[in-house]
Amino acid sequence: MHLLNEVKMSFPALFLIFSFLFSFSNAAVQDFCVADYSAPEGPAGYSCKKEAKVTVNDFVFSGLGVAGNTSNIIKAAVTPATASVFPGLNGLGVSLLRADLAPGGVIPFHTHPGASELALVVDGTICAGFVSSANNVYFKTLQKGDIMVFPQGLLHFQINTGKTKALFYASFSSAIPGLQILDYALFKNNLPTEIIAETTFLDPAVIKKLKGVLGGTN
């Protein structure tokens, strides 16, 4: 009787374990989950397009062969190849981007909440780095052929420190890495200047100037 009670008590745990394993076995059987942009998006990503509607074009993306327009305030352009524009990546845990930087161009401090980043310099000279959660700074000047990794969720940046254009490609450990740019989070919204001043110790006049440049209000 005691043994039977133990079995009965452990059944919910066993059920959860087998359900978990079953869900993984189903995921392994499914070859792919091409994003269906017309269907609702859930926490796990885009819904799957019916296989009968999938074509080879869903698995091909040609946007990374063209240089981006760097005529902007940061003198840089980023061309993403993530699941939001490349449906065949959905659910596969990988994605790419192309970054073009004019001389003096910068990719400001930003984070990717959903992925680590691996950047390969193809042309030019780039100073790149990140800040750990212990506030240790790791940065280095990268030359053509150099690779640097930026751990998931950590603030990082890239600057073209050379006299010619720079180009790097970055890969991510997620089809939807996410993006939050620190400058935009602070100065491209309607968060009151007083709150930003209190939380960053910046002068209100400086904050208002940056809001004017980046499009923020209040």
Automatic annotation (TrEMBL):
Question: Cross-referenced PROSITE patterns, in alphabetical order?
Answer: GERMIN (PS00725)
Any one GO MF term held by the record is: manganese ion binding
User: What InterPro entries has UniProt attached to this entry?
Assistant: Cupin_1, Germin, Germin_Mn-BS, RmlC-like_jellyroll, RmlC_Cupin_sf
**UniProt keyword terms in alphabetical order:** Apoplast, Disulfide bond, Glycoprotein, Manganese, Metal-binding, Receptor, Secreted, Signal
Which SUPFAM superfamilies is this protein grouped with? RmlC-like cupins
Note the Pfam families from the entry: Cupin_1
Q: Which cysteines are joined by disulfide bonds?
A: C33-C48
The terms describing its cellular component in GO are: apoplast
- The Cupin type-1 domain covers which part of the protein? 62-208
Entry binding sites for oxalate: H112, E117
Location within or outside the cell = Secreted, Extracellular space, Apoplast
Q: Which residues form the signal peptide?
A: 1-27
Give binding positions for Mn(2+): H110, H112, E117, H156
Under PANTHER family, the record lists:
GERMIN-LIKE PROTEIN SUBFAMILY 3 MEMBER 3
Protein family membership: Belongs to the germin family.
Q: What is this protein called?
A: Germin-like protein
Q: Which taxonomic lineage does the organism of this UniProt entry have?
A: Eukaryota, Viridiplantae, Streptophyta, Embryophyta, Tracheophyta
Name the encoding gene, please. Answer: LOC107423925
